[in-house]
Amino acid sequence: MATISIIIVSYNGLEETTAPCLESIFRYTPGKGYEVIVVDNNSSDGTASYLTGLMAREPRLKCVLNGSNRGFAGGNNDGIGMATGNVLVLLNSDTLVRPGWLEGLTGPLSRDSGIGLIGPVSNAVGNEQKIHTDGKAPESVIEQGLRWAARSRGRSFETEMLSFFCVGFRRDVLDRVGLLDEGFGRGFYEDDDYSLRVRKAGYRLVCAEDVFVYHKGGGSFGKPGSDVKNLLRENRRRLEKKHGEPHNRRSMWRLQLDLVEAYLADGSGRPLSPDLRYRIANRLKVVCEHRPGSPFKKLFLFWRLLELQWKTGIPHAEIPDCAESRRT
User: Quick check: pTM over 0.90?
Assistant: First the structure.
């Protein structure tokens, strides 16, 4: 019986996502104490045949071949139902991992029973789990991500929401909180919902800054169609109705600035170490990549950056020029 169960939902994209993801897991995650469960949501590109053949050669692999698209929540719930591990990791099919990723995620869960969910940093994610990376080539991005992880050893922070491209939790959390809500259909906002449910159960959500997982984006659902905006709108309304409160995701630049200020508060006024300066500079690049568009918010951002420069003593030349960055 495995102690850790890694659950992956696939839907087409075999050559682009699912196969490279599995290859990275089995190549860079040694040992026999884990199992990988792939739930395929009725792909039409040969994924089922590939998984069947790989399962015959890889004893750590299990597969569920669904006859219809069960969506993100439904597919993961199918995998959870087959899982034997005391720790479960939900991993998107459009991710790539490197050595140490699984221990980095599961170790804190075993050491701290107050952690309900844990996730890594990444290059493509919609909250403060995102770090800055240059370029698009996966190996280059991974190299930069691993450099970040090496300079963030033992670092983590609490957050209000974790993205489910890669998230770990213990079985006791699952038993208390329950399965993912399949009412969200194909996907979107089920990770917000589960994060809220875990927090309401009294657990903390933690991002491990010393674990980097590459994320391509979009692999678990295939290429999005024109109905994505409607699905996002409908699922947000469902989430707000379910929890009885409005749900507004904070902007990326605000999340990143708040995290930088948390870094400084944690330093208790001590001189900035080279690693801390590196992390602050990286976070500020993300701030500028996602700078606001309105004049008032631009002015607010300008003053916050000046305040951070004063607090940190970082030379102006090391503060990214948000005027030259794209707006999102």
Answer: yes
